[in-house]
Amino acid sequence: MALFKRRTVGKPGEWFYCLEHQKVEEGPQCRAADRLGPYGTREEAAHAMEIARERNLEWETDPKWHDDPGQGKSAGED
User: Fold this and answer.
1) Cβ–Cβ < 8 Å for 36, 13
2) Is the dihedral of CA 44, 65, 33, 11 positive or negative?
3) Rounded to two decimals, what is the model's pTM?
4) Would you say the C-alpha torsion 46, 49, 55, 57 has a positive or negative sign?
5) Does residue 27 contact residue 10 with C-beta atoms inside 8 Å?
6) What is the DSSP annotation of 7-63?
7) How far apart are CA 49 and CA 9, in angstroms?
8) Using one digit for the tens of pLDDT, what is the confidence trace for 9-43?
């Protein structure tokens, strides 16, 4: 018995954006490394790249994720 079964048919209403084919797909048709999702709607999956850009920009400009360079010293360093 295989430990991991490949899911070839997705759940109805489960949408993905395939990075390799640059298209929206219902269910996981392509390998996980090549897709974004799942999204709740086809429309949301169609905007996956825009959503990813917005999230990346939010992360890059979030002050909680950028440490002060002077705070990275180990104990005992001066």
Assistant:
1) no
2) negative
3) 0.66
4) negative
5) yes
6) --SPPTT-EEEETTTTEEEES--S-GGGEEEEESSHHHHHTHHHHHHHHHHHHHT-G
7) 23
8) 567 789 999 999 999 999 888 999 999 999 999 99
